[in-house]
Amino acid sequence: MTMNEFLGDPRNLTMLMDYYQLTMSNGYLSHGYKDTIVYFDMFFRKIPDKGGFAIACGLEAVVKYIENLKFHEEDIEFLRDKKIFSEDFLDYLRNFKFTCDVWAVPEGTVIFPNEPIITVRGPILEAQLIETMVLLTINHQSLIATKTNRIVRAAQGRNIMEFGSRRAQGYDGAIYGARAAYIAGAIGSSNVYTDKEMGIPAIGTMAHSWVQLFGDEYEAFKAYAETYPDNCTLLVDTYNVLRSGIPNAIKVSKEVLEPLGKRLKGIRLDSGDMAYLSKECRRILDEEGLWDCKIVASNSLDEFIIKDLISQGAYIDTFGVGERLITSKSEPVFGGVYKLVAVEENGEIAPRIKLSENVEKVTNPHYKGLWRLYEGKTGKAIADILTLHDENIDETKPYVLFDPVFTWKKKVVENFTAKKLQVKIFEKGQLVYNLPNIEEIKDYCREEVNSLWDELKRFENPHNYYVDLSEKLWKIKNDLIEQYRDKI
Amino acid sequence: MTMNEFLGDPRNLTMLMDYYQLTMSNGYLSHGYKDTIVYFDMFFRKIPDKGGFAIACGLEAVVKYIENLKFHEEDIEFLRDKKIFSEDFLDYLRNFKFTCDVWAVPEGTVIFPNEPIITVRGPILEAQLIETMVLLTINHQSLIATKTNRIVRAAQGRNIMEFGSRRAQGYDGAIYGARAAYIAGAIGSSNVYTDKEMGIPAIGTMAHSWVQLFGDEYEAFKAYAETYPDNCTLLVDTYNVLRSGIPNAIKVSKEVLEPLGKRLKGIRLDSGDMAYLSKECRRILDEEGLWDCKIVASNSLDEFIIKDLISQGAYIDTFGVGERLITSKSEPVFGGVYKLVAVEENGEIAPRIKLSENVEKVTNPHYKGLWRLYEGKTGKAIADILTLHDENIDETKPYVLFDPVFTWKKKVVENFTAKKLQVKIFEKGQLVYNLPNIEEIKDYCREEVNSLWDELKRFENPHNYYVDLSEKLWKIKNDLIEQYRDKI
Predict the structure, then answer these.
(1) Is domain A3-144+332-487 in CATH 3.20.140.10, yes or no?
(2) What are the b/e assignments for A182-198, b being 16+ CB within 10 Å?
(3) Residues paired with A159 in a beta bridge
(4) Which segment of the chain is annotated as a signal peptide (chains A, B) (predicted)?
(5) With the C-alpha atoms ordered B405, B408, B413, B418, is the resulting torsion angle positive or negative?
(6) Pairing of the two strands A159-162 and A188-189
(7) Cα-based angle B293, B294, B296 (whole degrees, multiple of 5)
(8) What is the band of A8 on the pLDDT scale with cuts at 50, 70, 90?
(9) Taking CB atoms and an 8 Å limit, are A193 and B352 in contact across chains?
């Protein structure tokens, strides 16, 4: 089954929205704003875990949601019973048709705070009604992709497997979490559903219950080796790793697998001191000639513990990471927001702003362009620029970057290439984007992370990447702030 | 739509399981364990946020899942392509029929570590295959119910509204999270889907985009008041609460609502210093005769901030709680596990154990009963006891409690009543439990929390509730530990 076929999730999630989307839309309609064209930006403000960057994920599910948008008669009836919605509005919903333009950064793109990940242009009722699902989808999947990539980087080339379904926050948490993890670098997931529906390789061997059922650990290992001689990984910590699990695994390797011409593929540690146990296991396995038997570890791991284990010289080939990946336990919220940035008035685009006492929280107004500059020589990303939508960045001339808060901080860049990061997804409600398959997204994500300097990838005090405004945009923003200051 | 009709979620989640459930089950079958009857317990080990108790939630969704269990032909094909499953096993899946007995504590029950929340008795293949979904479901919903109840208690009678859909971990995170929140004491949710499908009251008024669209805050408030004169709550922080939002809200109250004989229902604060602003807003509203205008607050709240706001004398009537509730941000994992505790051998129930270097982590073996003792005079819960399944607790005699780890710690209780907490849900695969509706569950949950002493409900160092083993069960557990110690 391909990605596009998976678009057929049988649930209709049209009604999954905050109630105020409906109360507002009903009011927009009754006040004559039905055909008012607006611009919304979806962006986030803070990188989870004090990291240097985040990874955008979830666009495909947003596309699926928009393609399936439909209010059914029972939805209309339900809303009519609220006795606050006009019949005009209920008719509008009954005939709802999405006609907006949507731009987005592709899934797997490296993103930074305050950048429009998704921009929606269209009639305010339509653009408003999709807010909750756009946020829910992008927030969740970007959170897990960002977290997983941290864990993958911590493992320094060792394999990461996603093992968290049982601790996920709901079924979609497990399903779309596994997808985000795979995109961001996990080699597969324990989840069978996501293998069948999305092609994410399913991985797994045995639980403690297998060993407990047989009662005797050797008999349990023997039975497993007989069943799966080509892919035999044994869980060795049900009773005692070094005194029972490893001796029994070696015995099964010699008595069951080797006579068949097979090798013991791996052992798995799921408790205890992983640094000590993995080194002891490696030593014993090597002594017994089982140099090619892999060691898998899987107990409450995350990027910090994996980094620490590696620094202690633990011999672990593969990490199975569960609850701390699938919930992004250290920081389980990706705080994306969806803000009105402009309104078309008499054929002109009028920028809109949301003020805040914290100057960095003031929204970036207007219909914008999002650019990334790359160093010509290395191809590494050096800065992102927000411009007005119709501004161009001329690669042949030096470009002056300046900090949007501390404007005296300036830097001139030369010999760069510039790329617009958003691509068009919907044009007047029609899907015009060819959704890449999951392997393409995964490859693209790897390239994206490779385009970053190492200073951005470290966990402690990563370099602060430039996300600047063009001079024109900066001026518009400041004028708006002044204008509202005068008013109040 | 009633709860039972909602059982018709169109997704088939049968394949949402860890891959090792399938590799193990295939092996059980090929080794002649098809008809072997086993017992699994689902339990958790640690109360989130160092709280005094947790709340069980998610049983209804487990029932729905089990009722819908079915492997489709495309699932069988997918598994055949893995080239490791026997045709016997694929046939078994094709004809899969759930025949287990299932016991569970009802949703809304107060639970403690190491207690069987769910017990499954039946053929090992069936009991094994449901592990992932049982854990995923109960872990997620119990997590959110437990967290919400903390937030509700912190608010000391003020209303809590669930506002977190946009920050939930996936769609089910929003849907079942809203359900768990409502059961545990929230008065409603911003989520429209859960109102329509589950009858959880949807709540909401306006976002900043409403104010931004109109440009002028007074015009925006006026339009909203005209549209919803009976239910007008105004978001007052788009530009400046005290200099713009509140004056405009008062003006609209006097110029639009009062001429219609209506009252301003509320104002909402979504940023800034809630303690200071709420007191100032209250003072100004009262001065203007708007004593009945409610103040709603909704910015990154949780039980700690709410408690702190109340202690500062903040005038807040209702709290809208988002990301920190819907993800249980402070502790986003409910670590439930599903462990084999017994196997039927020659008509006898043979207990099974999983050892650990940490004595408190050793599983409680055997097919058990779970009892709660209540003080006769007050009806307050005093201790829970795990017994063998066929043991009885005689209320007419004193009962000796003793600590399962520090066994010299004893306490005699008299004048108590004893109640078995688990009820039968499935009998030989048939649903024999009448699922309560959501209001019944919510009421029951409130009674459950009321049955606890205050010392258990506090946030700092709550009392450690007794969860003890009967003498018979304790002896069996210790004999098993000794037996395995001798072996290894």
Answers:
(1) yes
(2) bbbbbbbbbbbbbbbbb
(3) A318
(4) none
(5) positive
(6) parallel
(7) 140
(8) very low
(9) no
Three-class SS state of B368: strand
Using CA atoms, how far residue A253 sits from A209, A266, A296, B25, B73, in Å, is 21, 10, 17, 22, 36
Q: Taking CB atoms and an 8 Å limit, are A170 and B170 in contact across chains?
A: yes
B 176-205 residues with CB < 8 A to A: 176-177, 190-193, 195-197, 202-205
Per-residue pLDDT band for A64 (boundaries 50, 70, 90) equals very high
Among the listed residues B33, B263, B210, B16, the one whose alpha carbon sits nearest the alpha carbon of residue B125: B33
Q: Which of residues 280-299 of A touch B (CB under 8 A)?
A: none
Confidence bin at A162 (pLDDT 50/70/90): very high
Query: One-letter amino acid identity for B152?
Result: V
Give the separation between CA B63 and CA B104, rounded to whole angstroms. Answer: 11
What class has domain A145-326? alpha beta
pLDDT 10s digits, A177-234? 999 999 999 999 999 999 999 999 999 989 999 999 998 999 999 999 999 999 999 9
Cβ(A189)–Cβ(A162) under 8 Å?
Answer: yes
Residue B409: how many other CB atoms lie within 10 Å: 12
Report the C-alpha gap between B263 and B247 in whole angstroms: 15
Q: Which structure tokens are listed for B259? A: 């001429």
Please tell me the least confidently modeled range out of A243-247, B9-13, B209-213: B9-13
Query: In the structure encoding, which two tokens stand for residue A209, read together?
Result: 């219950």
The average pLDDT across B239-252 equals 96
Residue in chain A nearest B235 by alpha carbon = A20
Q: Which residues pair with A102 in a beta bridge?
A: A120, A426
Out of A20, A207, A336, the one facing B204 most closely (by C-beta) is A20
Name the A residues in 347-366 with CB < 8 Å from any B CB: 350, 352-357
CATH of domain B147-326: 3.20.20.70
Measured distance CA(B470)–CA(A299) in Å, rounded: 31
Q: How confident is the model at residue A9 (pLDDT cuts 50, 70, 90)?
A: low
Per-residue burial over A368-395, b if 16 or more Cβ lie within 10 Å, else e, is: bbbbbbbbeeeeebbbbbbbbbeeebee
Angle in degrees, CA A142, A144, A146, rounded to 5: 65
**Min distance A339 CA to chain B CA atoms (Å):** 7
Q: Which of A13, A272, A352 sits opposite B171 (nearest CB)?
A: A13
* pLDDT score of A7 more than 60: no
B483 touches chain A (CB under 8 A): no
Looking at residue A409, its pLDDT comes to 81
Are B462 and B112 spatial neighbours (Cβ–Cβ below 8 Å)? no
Give Rg (Cα) of chain A. Answer: 26
Chain A environment of B225 (Cβ under 8 Å): none
Is B227 exposed, middle or buried, given 0-12, 13-18 or 19+ CB atoms closer than 10 A? buried
CA angle at A141 for the pair A335 and B138, rounded to the nearest 5° = 95
Q: Does A329 touch chain B (CB under 8 A)?
A: yes
Residue B1 has pLDDT above 70, yes or no: no
Q: Of A367, A225, A323, A362, whose CA–CA distance to B30 is shortest?
A: A225
Is A219's Cβ below 8 Å from some Cβ in B? no
Q: At what angle do helices B171-183 and B438-450 cross, to 10 degrees?
A: 60
From B261, B57, B331, select the one nearest A331 (Cα to Cα): B331
The residue in chain B having the minimum alpha-carbon distance to the alpha carbon of residue A128 is B209
Q: Is residue B172 within 8 Å of residue B61, measured between CB atoms?
A: no
Q: What ipTM describes this predicted complex?
A: 0.96
Chains A, B: CB pairs < 8 Å = 322
Q: Do A23 and B213 touch (CB under 8 A)?
A: no
List, for residues B21-39, the tens digit of each pLDDT value: 999 999 999 999 999 999 9
Query: Can you give the residue ranges of every domain in chain B?
Result: 3-144+332-487, 147-326
